């Protein structure tokens, strides 16, 4: 199965920046969408940003203008550049991929998560 491995999380001060990376460990028949979701303590998992194979980007309103998603299709890797971080961005960030694992069989895959903490 496809494995998604996140990296780049950590502790940062408000106003600072972090960049997250997520790499798929195995080539799939087709990876249509990759992206990031996050889950803060006591809250449901929520969209952060997605990007499809054509480069079309989608962002949650709360991160527009601050976060930028990108992908390297050759490396099966998605990135999330996070600028002007706020305490409310603190969460576990999960990599996501919508994958055609076999002809006409589509599945959602999730990484194990990486902690981002924004605090003074």
Tell me briefly what this model is.
The protein is mostly beta strands and 120 residues long. It has no helices and eleven strands. The protein has strands at residues 4-7, 10-12, 18-24, 30-39, 46-52, 57-59, 67-72, 77-82, 91-102, 105-110, 114-118.
Q: How would a crystallographer describe the biggest sheet?
A: 7 strands, mixed
- Backbone structural class: mainly beta
Helix content: under 10%
Strand content: over 45%
Number of helices: 0
Oligomer: single chain
Jot down its keywords.
7-stranded mixed beta sheet, mainly beta, 0% helix, 120 residues, single chain
Give an overview of the whole structure.
With 120 residues, this protein is mainly beta. Helix content is 0%, strand content 57%. It is built from no helices and 11 strands. It has strands at residues 4-7, 10-12, 18-24, 30-39, 46-52, 57-59, 67-72, 77-82, 91-102, 105-110, 114-118. Strands 2, 4, 5, 6, 9, 10 and 11 form a 7-stranded mixed β-sheet that branches. The chain has a 4-stranded antiparallel β-sheet with strand order 1-3-8-7, with no helix packed on it. β7 and β8 (77-82) form a beta hairpin. The termini are far apart. The relative contact order is 0.33.
């Amino acid at each position: 199965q496809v494995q998604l491995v996140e990296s780049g999380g950590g502790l940062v001060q408000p106003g600072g920046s972090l960049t997250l990376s997520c790499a798929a460990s195995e080539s799939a028949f087709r990876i249509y969408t990759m992206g990031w979701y996050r889950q803060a303590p006591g809250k449901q998992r929520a969209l952060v940003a997605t990007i499809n194979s054509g480069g079309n980007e989608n962002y949650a309103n709360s991160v527009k203008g601050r976060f930028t998603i990108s992908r390297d299709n050759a490396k099966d890797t998605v990135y999330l550049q996070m600028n002007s971080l706020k305490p409310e961005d603190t969460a576990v960030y999960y990599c996501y991929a919508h994958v055609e694992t076999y002809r006409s069989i589509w599945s959602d895959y999730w990484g194990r998560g990486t902690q981002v903490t924004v605090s003074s």
